Amino acid sequence: MTKDHEEGDQPRIVVIGGGTGLSVMLRGLKEKPMDITAIVTVADDGGSSGILRSELEMVPPGDIRNVLTALADVEPLLGKMLEYRFQKGQGLAGHSLGNLILAAMQDITGDFVTGVRELSRVFAVRGRVLPAANHAIVLKAEMMDGSIVVGESKIPKAGKVIKRVFIEPADVSPLPEAVEALRRADAILVGPGSLYTSILPNLLVPEITRTIVESKALKMFICNVMTQPGETDGYAVSDHLRAVRDHVGQDLFDYVIVNNGEIPPQIQNKYAEKGAKVVHLDLDEVTKKGYKVIADQLVLFRTYLRHDADKLSQHIYQLVENWMIKKR
């Protein structure tokens, strides 16, 4: 154990990503006795986040808002209020109230990160929420046909196959607190979330990936349940891992956690209408690369397919607990 980690302390978990999948998982993880830090993408340029990013020159707040709401210990009504999206009103329509509150907190405190920290205190957030960098980055994609698509929100809509994504500025400095959290982590989780537009933008910040590589923490990849049209069409689990390796130059993970439960045909058909299919677990291909695989029935279906936050967080917690026992 590290000298600054006393026996009995909660294990320190750093979760990296963005989007709905990350928020769902965090709702389960916050119920476990773990010290959570979420490092969240700052490449979003669509919708309310894109407008605020452009007009106020701020970090896009949408993914940060989702994570804050997921980790907050608040009444359900307050959670709904943060997520509330105005349906009409000139200049207001399309904005979520939580995004506007984050914009206000930036002005009040003079700094976006400080604003997030203060709002976290008000909402009794269980853990810390940090943007990957203190300013927005531009995400670009080179497609297989050689064309370049600019903007996180435009990449999945281009209707082309992605060869690689990259960020500008390429040498963006991460938030120092994010790097420190990674250095002190007992476990680092990447995903779930949109592979090219939520996960990889974080890993393309050079010092973030360098710190993950150097870390002796347990490293896990949480794979998406379904492919995403315009991003991961036809991808198996090994394709997700290969894309990460191709972008960062090496394998990052010890464990891969995947769903192997049956998804009813009628639900698969509903997703197929939008071009999404179940991510195939090609177990032999994954294990021969040296990854250990945790596979289980990890999905729930309400209106949409979502990870079963309780089950997923239990697997993560068990892996971390076992890892901590070995370290002792």
TrEMBL record:
Q: Name one Pfam family in it.
A: CofD
Which BP terms does GO give this entry? Answer: regulation of cell shape
Key word Chaperone present in the record? no
One GO molecular-function annotation for this sequence? Answer: LPPG:FO 2-phospho-L-lactate transferase activity
The entry's localization annotation reads: Cytoplasm
The record's listing under InterPro entries reads: CofD (IPR002882), CofD-like_dom_sf (IPR038136), Gluconeogen_factor (IPR010119)
Judging by the UniProt lineage, the source's domain of life is Bacteria
Keyword annotations for this protein, in alphabetical order, are: Cytoplasm
Q: Does the keyword Cytoplasm apply?
A: yes
One GO cellular component term noted in the UniProt record for this chain = cytoplasm
Function (record text): Required for morphogenesis under gluconeogenic growth conditions.
Its family remark reads: Belongs to the gluconeogenesis factor family.
- Tell me what this protein is called: Gluconeogenesis factor
The top of its lineage is: Bacteria, Bacillati, Bacillota, Bacilli, Bacillales
Q: Which gene encodes it?
A: yvcK
